[in-house]
Design brief:
By secondary structure, the protein is α/β, with parallel strands linked by helices. The protein has two domains: about 180 residues, Lyase, Ornithine Decarboxylase, Chain A, domain 1; about 260 residues, Alanine racemase (TIM Barrel, Alpha-Beta Barrel), CATH 3.20.20. It contains eleven helices and 21 strands. The longest helix has 19 residues. It is globular, with a radius of gyration of 23 Å. The N and C termini lie far apart (about 70 Å). The chain binds ligand LLP.
Length: about 450
């Protein structure tokens, strides 16, 4: 019989999970139904309810190992991969990435606390943000966390706090390299018109101003050009521009020891996507830094990179239960699931596309139909798939959406007061809870009805 879900026929790349659509442990059991991490999805839904976020531990670990190994292979100097925790921040993710020798990038006190409580060593945490609050800055300083200076507002306050708190701070300078890449407008960060970092034309001034500050030691430079990028050339160019910024810093007496190229490597959401492997990406960046340093006879800096999506996205799936159907004759058939834009805001925000299958019929063997998969939110744009081809389904069937590990849970909301799903990690046939399911009552926790309104 024809197998319509061609993504199941692509051999799984164990080494570079970002090249796959499905987690590396994805399989089908003797009932013909979907399993991940050796666990039957049907059983997981029975035990933990629906909808459900599931992370596959082996996929996560393989992704981390690919970055570590490739950095060791291609970069002769010291290196440290840093997980961009905005992709998916939790105690579990913090703990897992530190166990694989990763550092972590945080952009808020919440992400910092999650990292520290999750066991990430403070020396390996980098604190970003284009509008850090005073509380966040002081928290980072008191915890000896490396701060990335993004703008003059950061600079002025750090100068003051370093004096007041009598601390000697190690900081990095973030700049906008002026590199264009092909990705969604909202997730580009390196072009000249970006809210992040100093413009290249400001670098002289910033290096000059920071040279005279006794308590601030500029140890690194940072740039990030965007996310879900499939081209390698922008990262090759970025590495060169960054090495040149180290030379510039030298003119002002700074000895830059760390070069952080950000993240951005894309993943395969659908068959049409074809991202480079983690190995190719690391090789490109490493070679470019090494070549440029040799050219100028510079010592190799510690090379840091900040992958988020390519660590966690492919490891994650979301399982929904299909509920209502609506047939609009000659137009489309809607099926609605028990989640939507609150657990996955990416389709409505970026028109992102995903792959999915029925849990009981992963290979699409039965009577293929085209469905529009809608969420349950009170918004017409709450559509997860415009046209999904799967076997004929009915209310109560489970739908598994792949590639949801990054920027789903971390961008989730309670729109329409819908509680967030539970989260599990699966490995070797067992499943463990990493995020409790919210209840409708939980959502009242922060509501206050002032006394005068209570009779
Ligand atoms: N470093 C910095 C400074 C970043 O701003 C980002 C992502 C990363 C690293 C990690 O990039 P990645 O390896 O994940 O591409 N919500 C959007 C993505 C926003 C990315 C923001 N910054 C989405 O769902 O596509």
């Amino acid at each position: 019989m024809e197998q319509r879900n061609s993504f199941f026929n692509i051999p799984i790349d164990l080494v570079s999970p970002n090249k796959n659509i499905v987690p590396v442990t994805t399989s089908v059991n003797n009932l013909g139904a979907l399993t991940v991490g050796g666990c039957s999805i049907d059983d997981l839904i029975q035990n933990y309810g629906s909808p459900l976020y599931i992370l596959d531990e082996l996929t996560l670990r393989n992704s981390c190992k690919a970055y570590k190994k490739s950095l060791e292979k291609y970069y002769p100097g010291e290196s440290l991969p840093i997980y961009a925790s905005k992709a998916n921040s939790s105690l579990f993710m913090s703990w897992l990435i530190q166990s694989e020798g990763f550092g972590l990038d945080a952009v808020s006190k919440g992400e910092l606390i999650t990292a520290l409580k999750g066991g990430v060593v403070r020396e390996n945490i980098v604190f970003h943000g284009n509008n850090k609050s005073d509380e966040e800055l002081i928290f980072a300083i008191n915890n000896n966390i490396k701060i990335v200076i993004d703008n003059d507002y950061d600079l002025v306050r750090l100068k003051r706090y370093a004096n007041e708190l009598d601390k000697r701070l190690e900081v990095m300078i973030r700049f906008t390299p002026g590199i264009e890449c092909h990705t969604h407008e909202y997730i580009k960060t390196g072009s000249v018109d970006s809210k992040f970092g100093f413009g290249l034309d400001n670098l002289d001034r910033v290096f000059s101003e920071t040279a005279d500050i006794k308590n601030i030691n500029v140890v690194g430079v940072h740039a990030h050009i965007g996310s879900q990028i499939f081209e390698l050339a922008p990262h090759h160019d970025l590495a060169k521009i960054m090495v040149n910024s180290i030379l510039k810093a030298k003119d002002y007496g700074h000895e830059i020891k760390e070069l952080n190229v950000g993240g951005g490597l894309g993943i395969r959401y659908t068959n049409e996507d074809d991202p480079p492997s983690i190995d190719q990406w690391v090789k490109t960046v490493s070679n470019s830094v090494v070549e440029e340093c040799e050219k100028f006879n510079l010592d190799l800096p510690k090379l840091m990179c900040e992958p988020g999506r390519s660590i966690v996205s492919t490891a994650g799936i979301t399982v929904y239960t299909i509920g209502s159907f609506k047939d609009v004759p000659g137009v489309r058939t809607y099926i609605s699931v028990d989640g939507g834009m609150s657990d996955n805001p990416r389709p409505i925000t970026y028109q992102s596309t995903y792959s999915a299958c029925l849990v009981r019929d992963p290979h699409n063997k039965q009577d293929i139909k085209k469905y529009t998969v809608a969420g349950k939110h009170c918004e017409s744009g709450d559509v997860l798939f415009k046209e999904l081809e799967i076997g004929k389904c009915e209310s109560g069937d489970l739908l598994c959406v792949f590639g949801t590990g990054a920027y789903n849970s971390s961008m989730s909301s309670n729109y329409n007061r819908i509680p967030r799903p539970a989260g599990l990690v699966v490995s070797n046939g067992s499943a463990e809870l990493i995020q409790k399911r919210e209840s409708s009552e939980d959502l009242l926790k922060f509501d206050v009805l002032p006394d005068r309104f209570i009779r």
